[in-house]
Amino acid sequence: MNICQKERQLQGKLSSCIDNTVPGPLCCCSHQLPRGTGLRMFTKDFELPTEEELTVQEVNVTTSSLRAGAFHLGKTCEKENHEFILCREEEKDPRKCLTEGKDVTSCALNFFRKVKKSCLEEFSQYAHCLDQSSKDLNYRYCRNTQAIFDKCVLDNLNLERPEFGYFSRAQVIQTNRPKPEGYTSVEYPDAPPPIPEVDRARAKYGARNYWMT
């Protein structure tokens, strides 16, 4: 069966569901659709969010601008991002995390508004450097403009650039959101006692991992 035939078959199944010529449960059988379509069918009684619930002001910035502010944005909106990811992981249903998703978008909008008000020129120069210096928006070619932008954000917004590896660390998230229904915590009654920590000087470059050659 070629691509055109698959397309016609898919359109026929969708039309049958819409016209009610096929029972509701049959419309949600994903195995009846051609493989590789990337579509998922639902029954008619499946509740989807309304257009009003999904419509929010988007963060309309370029890729280079988003990359230029990524470190400070991640630190500013750390709590909102954690809440959203935790909700998605626990609930397993994106419909239940619309509020957390809107909080993430709102936080990002507020961050870029503050940057525009206080460090527009420094931010624009940094983003322009990332856009023009390499094909993959590499940071290493723009350390000078990065330092100027970092200083401006620190002086005006009191926001320090996170150190290398900050967002890769394992973190325990504290949340006030109630646990989902049926959630059970994993307990290991025979777990060995933890090894006591010792006082260690802060790693100079953010890690103590050895390099394999």
Outline the structure in words.
The chain is mostly helical and 213 residues long. Among the domains are: 34 residues, no CATH class; 108 residues, no CATH class. Helices cover 48% and strands 0% of the residues. The chain contains eight helices and no strands. Helix 6 crosses helix 7 and helix 7 crosses helix 8. The chain is globular. The relative contact order is 0.09.
Tags for this model:
213 residues; mainly alpha; disordered N terminus
Low-pLDDT residue spans? 1-8, 17-33
Helix content: 40-55%
Termini separation comes to 51 Å
Query: On the 0-100 scale, what is the average pLDDT?
Result: 82
Pairing-aware structural class of the strands and helices?
mainly alpha
